[in-house]
Amino acid sequence: MATRRFHVPDVTPGRIRVQGAQAAHGLKALRLGVGEEVVVFDGNGAEATGKIAEIDREAFEIEVTSRSASSVKMRFSLTIATAIPKGERADWMIEKCAELGVTRLIPLACKRSQVYPGAAKLDRWLRKAVEAAKQSRQSTVMEIEQGCLIAELADQLSSSPLLLFGDGGAVQSMNEVLSNRPPEADCVICIGPEGGFDEGERERLRSHGSIPVCLSGTVLRVETAAVAAAAIWASWAR
Predict the structure, then answer these.
(1) Tens digits of residue pLDDT in 2-19
(2) In terms of C-beta distances under 8 Å and separation of at least 24 residues, what long-range contacts does 130-133 make, across chains too?
(3) Which of these, 8, 14, 114, 218, is most buried using a 10 Å CB contact count?
(4) Separation CA 126–CA 115 (nearest Å)
(5) pLDDT digits (tens, 9 = 90+) for 145-181
(6) 8 Å CB contact between 162 and 181
(7) CA Rg value for the chain
(8) Backbone angles phi, psi at 51, to 5 degrees
(9) The predicted structure's pLDDT at residue 159
(10) Residue ranges of domains in the chain, CATH in brackets
(11) Considering the entire predicted model, what is its pTM?
């Protein structure tokens, strides 16, 4: 059985205390006991291995035996700015993008958008990102930012080394663009809503240096396009 992993705010010298929902899962669902080995990570790339030294009703403490940097880390970072699909489709998108190592996800408000996530939904997605990091054995957690208008995003990200946007009518595929460029420090890809970006939005993105790319030979739903982009990037950046 793989060593169980838990997210904590800080990985510091000495004992590390795991509490809240993370501790409840370990003690009640997994029935961990004193002496069992676990891994804790802070979501920023640091992790520690240790054994459970003490348990109380709502928490447990770990005696650290070793510390290390992330064991699974992309060479470069990927930001996905995407329109948000409805309901559970959005939850699935968050989970899979996090598993694939996306660095940051920005909910994108477009002319054809139908979903505008509030604070409660963003908090739930962050919890899903933490669980995805645990499952995929990453020490970093995908950041989830506040929603952003596409006009604001284009202005903010115009200095990014590589800026792409999904466009079913694009001449080049994302694979082709990546394979024809040297490695970049950072990439941003924008994914539009059902029906895609309108012409004004596409023109704004192009004017800021964004390259239109297709992700598949078929028409993809929003969440599928975001995950496809993440998978293409993960394969290239490893």
Answers:
(1) 789 888 888 877 788 898
(2) 130/7, 130/43, 131/95, 132/94, 132/95, 132/96, 132/98, 132/99, 133/7, 133/41, 133/43, 133/98
(3) 8
(4) 17
(5) 999 998 888 777 766 778 999 998 899 999 999 988 7
(6) yes
(7) 20
(8) -115, 145
(9) 67
(10) 4-69 (2.40.240.20), 77-237 (3.40.1280.10)
(11) 0.82
Locate 76 and state its tokens.
């470069």
**Pairing mode, strands 148-149 and 162-166:** unpaired
Give the span between the Cα atoms of 110 and 117, in whole angstroms: 13
Cβ-contact 100, 75 below 8 angstroms? no
Distance, CA of 13 to CA of 56 (rounded, Å)? 21
Task: Extract the tokens encoding 79.
Answer: 């930001």
Return mean pLDDT, the chain: 88
Q: Cα(48)–Cα(64) distance, rounded to whole angstroms?
A: 7
Beta strand segments in 83-168, E = 104-109, 143-144, 148-149, 162-166
Provide the sign of the torsion angle of the four alpha carbons 217, 223, 229, 232, taken in this order.
Answer: negative
Q: List the structure tokens of 161.
A: 């080394």
152 CB neighbour count, 10 Å cutoff: 12
Q: Where are the alpha helices (DSSP H) in 19-118?
A: 20-24, 88-99
Q: What tokens does 84 get? A: 């948000």
Confidence band of 67 (pLDDT split at 50, 70, 90):
confident
pLDDT of 98 reads: 96
Whole-angstrom Cα distance, residue 160 to residue 107? Answer: 18
Nearest-angstrom CA–CA distance, 165 and 170: 9
Token pair belonging to 165: 């946007």
Cα–Cα distance between 192 and 202 in angstroms, integer? 10
